Amino acid sequence: MNILIPIFIVLGTYAFMEFVAWFAHKYVMHGILWNWHQDHHVPEPGFFEKNDRFFLIFAVPSATCFILGSTTAYTLLIWVGLGILLYGVTYFLVHDVFIHQRFKWFRNTDNMYFRAIRRAHKMHHKHLTKEDGECFGMLIVPWKYFNKS
To answer: Which of 16, 59, 68, 117 lies at a 20 to 30 A Cα distance from 25?
Structure first.
């Protein structure tokens, strides 16, 4: 097999996951499963949030792809699973570590893109209810958050 095929599958899946995450955030987390996501907007005591359950939900398709890709003729599913996994790792590092500082690994940055991610997420969190939300994505940030100040 050409090595470019797995690379394109991983990168394509990774990119597609931003749209899956946006859709799930807007229509599932701020919709039918708001009761799980609410404590992320209105913090409750403790380290873990009900919102952390979504990590498990997003891990299921990745694990399923790894299992099916390893045990059936659909071996390309392994690369789909890897793309989902890498997006999940990115989500954890950007959202939980960098933005919310649940772990104090990455503190400050002078990078314009990372400042824009924080601004957009701050605007998302100014809404404490499931309605009237904005900025549901994580890596694709509206241009207005890239100002120089």
So the answer is: 68
CA dist 104 and 90 (Å) reads 16
The sign of the CA dihedral 133, 136, 142, 148 is: positive
In sequence order, the 6+-apart residues with CB closer than 8 A to the CB of 99 are: 117, 118, 121
Q: Model's pTM, two decimal places?
A: 0.89
In the chain, where are the structural domains located? 4-105
End-to-end CA distance of the chain: 49
Q: With 0-12 CB in 10 A as exposed, 13-18 as middle and 19+ as buried, what is 125?
A: middle
The rounded mean pLDDT for the chain is: 90
CA 105 to the chain's CA centroid: 18
- Which of the four pLDDT bands, split at 50, 70 and 90, describes residue 148? low
Q: For the segment 32-71, what is each residue's pLDDT rounded down to a tens digit?
A: 999 999 988 887 788 888 999 999 999 999 999 999 999 9
